Amino acid sequence: MLYFLALVVLLTTLLTELAARRDWLPYWIARKVLHVTAVGACAMASLTIDRSLLTWIVGGAALLLLVLIQTNQLMREESGRRAWGIAWLPLAFLILLLSPTPRPVIAFAMWVLAICDPAATVAGKLYARSTYNLTGDPKSLIGNLAFAGTFILLALLFTVPTQLSPAPEAPQQFLSVVQLIGWPGIIGMALLLTAGESLGSRGLDNLIVPLLTAWLWSAVEPGQYALLIPLLLGGTVFSVIMVNRRSLTAGGAITATFLGIIVVLGTKSFWWLLPLFLFLLSSSLIGRLFPSTTAAGDGKHKQARDATQVLANGAVYGLLGARFIQSCDTCLYDYHYPWEHLLLVAAAVATADTWSSEIGQYFRWPTFDLVTWKKVPAGLSGGVSLPGTVAGLAGAVFIAGACWWLLPYHLPGSFTIVVLAGFFGMLLDSALGALLQAKFQDPETGAFADTPGQQGILASGYRWMTNDLVNFLAIFIVVWFAEFFLSS
Q1: Looking at the domain assignment, is residue 377 inside a domain?
Q2: Global confidence as pTM
Q3: How many independent structural domains does the chain possess?
């Protein structure tokens, strides 16, 4: 089976590449034919091939694809950019294989990606009269309906054994995914996965769809599926409010809703939405109370937060919430150390950095590069000032104090740990910004800024290291160190 599947994928890759380069087929059709073949082969392999061997094969394939795409040996997308979405596929498959996810769940997740994603593309290309854009790539409502409909159909047709090792005398029974999860859960999953696919630009849906599918089936408890539809309705109301207030873009609001749903399902509690709510509310109020503009800061400053910004500040919190479910049996009242601390640490770092940036730019006190200690314009990444530093400390104190007071979990030592971690995360964010983040200089005025503008040239850092990536890395690193410290 291994050699057969490998041969099919290899031949399909070569033929679709040739067809695309010779203009025998449109790029999008060639890519979708390869997509269905490759992802379908992954689904079949997950059920029939030794898991350890398959893991090594997929890991090697992921590295090979990265090299081929980087060197332009594989087809580009219609826009001309590299087809990085092809590389996200083996990465998602590899993550599932390395996790404790059962084989049938992995197979189903890959089939969802293999069938539902192309169905959305084909329906959108052939029948959509208008499109919308949440994160970069155009999507359509008819494509969304096709994705949700094919997911429900697949859930009806895909069956799994009720017992992995039945007794010899007992006949094996099979149930469909709908029978296992129930209609409320299936409809909720269809809506949530459709929203996830709509956020997946640059091929990220190849990562989002299978991982989210597997998590919703294997990690969420059956009794929680009834919450999916109410959570989605509540998220819709939240999204409309935040977009109307211009606090979030449409993509940012949907992404924030995603994070909230994952946190509620993962922690089995609505209480852990509180740190996210406090971060969003306080950030919005600080921005209104201390309005400021600077030519040196990030180009997104004072604009509605988009999906990338929401993920930069909330992705670690969401991942912790998703992982939380694996660490306890009765999380609603009996949280196990140290996950609750880490959730608060992630929120504290994001809040401290936001407060520091907003208030530091407002007061415009002397600002210095944290690494070289040279004077820099207020708002330039890597710069620190006295008002900004004090504000960052206040933000960490605010999250730690408010959550300690409002959450029904009085965690020993959490206040000090969260404050120190939040303050250190703010400083780490500035250090990463000073060392790695791209900074551009205007050749005429000599002024430095975080964005290139019309004629800015790269003066330091790496072009791909943006402020959003720096924010994510600072939170991730601090949480990782906090986990190591608290676990030791």
Answers
A1: yes
A2: 0.84
A3: 1
